[in-house]
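Much of what follows relies on a compact textual record of a protein's fold. A complete example follows; check for yourself that the lines match position by position.
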Amino acid sequence: MNTTSPHLTLREQMFYLRQLSFLLGAGMPLTESLDTLIEQTRGKSRRALFQRIRDDTASGIPFSKSIRMHAESFDVSVPSLVEIGELSGTLAQNLLFLSEELERKQSLRKKILGALMYPFIVAVSTVVLVGTLIVFIFPKIVPIFIGMDIELPWTTRALLATSTFLISYGIYLLFLVPIVCMGCVRLYKKTRLKRYVDTLLLHLPLIGNMVRDYTLAHFCRTLHVLLTSTMTLPEALEVTAHTLHNDSYVRALSVLKEQTHAGKPLSLALKSRPDLFPHAMVNMIAVGEHTGKLPDTCAYLARLYETAVDTTTKNLSTTVEPLLMLCMGLAVGGIAISIIAPMYEITEHLQRR
């Protein structure tokens, strides 16, 4: 395996596979199709990748084997479907099928990111607004309060302490926060913390259902593609586990692989984890097994959960927006009260004089 091979994004893989499919479908030999693809490819590392694959195929190495030699550049489902396409003489059709499946996967990912973008922007805007008020606006008013012989409310004293801290150490926080965030990400990936965080994500309100539906859609879509390539069920489950991000599902699929390898039907294996695999899904899988149409059933379930994710992402902004506005209002309102309350004290102090 070539460890220097670049990782191709889903969008890039979609483009390259579709281009190859069209070229092969037009009757162009594989090596010439790869030559054309190399001419159209931008980026030295990507051109070098396809040049190596082209050289491999020209020397007699199967196309699928060459892709496996650069597996880190492609989605896990690509080598298997390319191999079955070579063996059955349907390589062009399989490449087009792959590009369409990757397009669905990319679309689902974009919907998730799009749904999370609005809350992220509002949260960042709130932090910037509050930080600006505390660091730049509030210090200009503080001398007025200090110059008067009055006792400041606790909210104002807390805001003053926060302002003093940020002015004194804010520059260090700008460097410390990214370092802490990177440390937390590394800790999440390298320790058992990932297991607990991933389990927690599945039980969070709003987020939990979206994570579960997204993972199930990805699971069913990948299983559909791999089973279509005539890969055995235990092998397909093992490969699918490597494509999932939630540790709860990864560990569950490891157990499922062993159970199906021992001859247990997939539906019965799934039934042992009702917390991860809904009853309706298990029943559909059982029907697919009994009718011999498990890949088609997985495709149907993938579309079902992709629709659920689509609905959730569309409703997420509407659901979260009032909560975000409330948090922003409380933050700005708290600062306003901390400034206005001492002014009443000052007014009463002047009236007594």
